[in-house]
Batch of 3 targets.
Target 1
Amino acid sequence: MGDWRGTLNQQPVGREGATVAARQSSSPAPALPDAPDLFDYCALRASLGLAFREPDLSACDRTGLRISPWLAGLLGPSFAFSLFAPQLVVIVAYISGFCVFAALVAWRIWLLLVATTPGFARPARMADLPEMELPVYTILVPMFREAPAVAGLAEAMACLDWPAERIDLILLTETGDIETEAAIERTRWPKNTRHLILPPGAPQTKPRALNYGLQYARGTLACIYDAEDRPHPGQLKAAYAAFARGGEKLACAQAPLAAYNHRQTWLATHWAMEYAVQFGLLLPALARLRLPILLGGTSNHFRMAVLRQLNGWDAWNVTEDADLGVRLARRGYRSTVIVPPTWEEAPETLAIWTGQRSRWLKGFWQTWVVMMRHPRLCLREIGWPGFLALQIMLAGTCPAALVHGPLIVGLGVAWLAGWTELGGAGLWLMLLGYFVNALAMLITPGPRGMRRWSAAITLPFYWPIQTFAAVRALYGWLRAPHFWAKTPHGLTAHQDK
């Protein structure tokens, strides 16, 4: 294992006696010849807890391609046809892409109708809560190369409207991340802050860090924040109120995510509008319909007992949030959406945007493959509505991203080849898709302005670039399914809230 980390201790840090716990000794243990390597049990459990207890629900395998026999049976004939009847394959591929895209457009229309129904109840805001009744709230913050974001994170954590003595703030960093460690050490933190340094191990992913921190958590409730997050001060109380109203089967409350730098670049504006539609319309509609919700990677709040019952996160899935949302639904739990948002940093460049989006798409593929290992079992667990919804959200999103660019080319080929029915239908479907999504951007809650109209008008230029991310995701899924494409944070000096 390399360096062996020592026992836990506590070391005061900060001007008000905040503690950074679990600072482990940097001295290596003496060599033990002819003996197996020592290992940290908590680190092993963080990596393999779910994979050991429920292997069919984990993406932990050598290639990430362990799929059910029926799916493999579909892939074989498709490859054979591509060799002997390429023209037929092109037609079938075009029709398949058309059907996938049509299903996504119809799904989006349905959710928008649900979200804008006059009787649609927006999530209620939190009420005043007696502090003496509030439980301990664990906040897990995984960080890797996040030194520029540390100071802002500490300030945001200090502003949370929750009794300081009932906050259990756990900072999680990787071994060797010296810059982030140094930034944490020189920053003033709220009391009851702990800093855990993960022992070396694989995979080096955010869910592995979360699983490690989960074993040290002492709260009744838990939430996840990223290093660049700036949550609304009342978010914890809003989640607590949602759990109090929602009953025992309500296991997760997702806060909306918004960009504080949405005015910086065209890409950041579109990213922010995507999030505004997702968290302002689509997720509330799914919650109202009691369908599975693919959670965001941050600002989701959980009942601690449920998290532990589900063995935490899948350390081998690069969209651990979506995977956990599916597993919650399969165990009969619900998720909801609360009002107070979290502001975070939108990607401002194409390179950063593509890396992040490709990881999301790769993780959706992983989650779908895991779900479809036993499709009939999954169907029994979540029922037909939930099963079909997941097929659209997981299996449909990735092919649709691949289709966006080629669809334009395909329309041109269809017209040139004389397939006017296909070409005309595809053109109208594409225009309908743009119209529906542009309309969603215009009606979603939030500040109004010319940038919203500009984003809606330029949407046809935004969608095709998803094809580059989808190709990268497909390649990564085949070659490095568990590699975590890190999104750099702390690069934005201006905040546009």
Note: The domain at 48-487 is CATH 3.90.550.10 (Spore Coat Polysaccharide Biosynthesis Protein SpsA; Chain A).
Target 2
Amino acid sequence: MLNRFRLEFPSRPDNVGLARVTVAAFAAQIDPTLEELDDIKGAVSEAVANAIVHGYDNSPDGVVTVEGVLYGDAIEVFVEDSGKGMEDVGQAMEPEFSTDPERLGLGFSFMQTFMDSVSVDSVPGRGTRVVMRKQFARRH
């Protein structure tokens, strides 16, 4: 059975927590372990923070969209912005690469560690869409 949600909010740092708990509450429907929930929350936090910091340069005037879809024992989470986008997604996904010298550049590395798959589509001047998927361990 398929279930989904969609959430839109201003690109304000205090909304990272909103995205985290929304996705965690949604994922809880399929009874993940606490570790699986923590992984999802960590990945969502990184993706939303990237949209705010890099997509919108910390401007609160953008909109971040988070969508979640449950497929049996798996979840897919989409985080999308209409910000400045990226010229080179491959380079952006390299560990320790960042356009902001104040940041560590580990966001995508963390997402890839927490989730089973991460893909990124980005168009300069039009925004970025991150798709993350996690398969939950079967406990039945």
Note: The mean pLDDT is 87.
Target 3
Amino acid sequence: MTSPAIVSLEKMLATPRDGALLRFALGMEYLKINGTEKAIEHLRHAVARDPGYSAAWRALGKALEAAGRSAEALASYHSGIAAAQKKGDKQLVKEMTVFARRIEKKTAA
């Protein structure tokens, strides 16, 4: 199942517009329809193309958590925290720190 937004965005994949922002948008659209694995795929492409894209790291962490891949989600949040700190994005640092701590508490229990 895909949405009209996904169809439209996927048409841009084979064009010069294919980049971190497009992959982030696709990942977010797939998350909306519970297409977790496709979301992870596109969000991984987003952070590979722009390792400083802290919002993409956060979304990737959320998608990985939804897929039950806690260790990978934790690693994503840590990468996202580092990226957000470099940009001075304090809000994303706080959010991902909370998400990471929740995973650490679950795995410790």
Note: Residues 90-108 form the longest helix (19 residues).
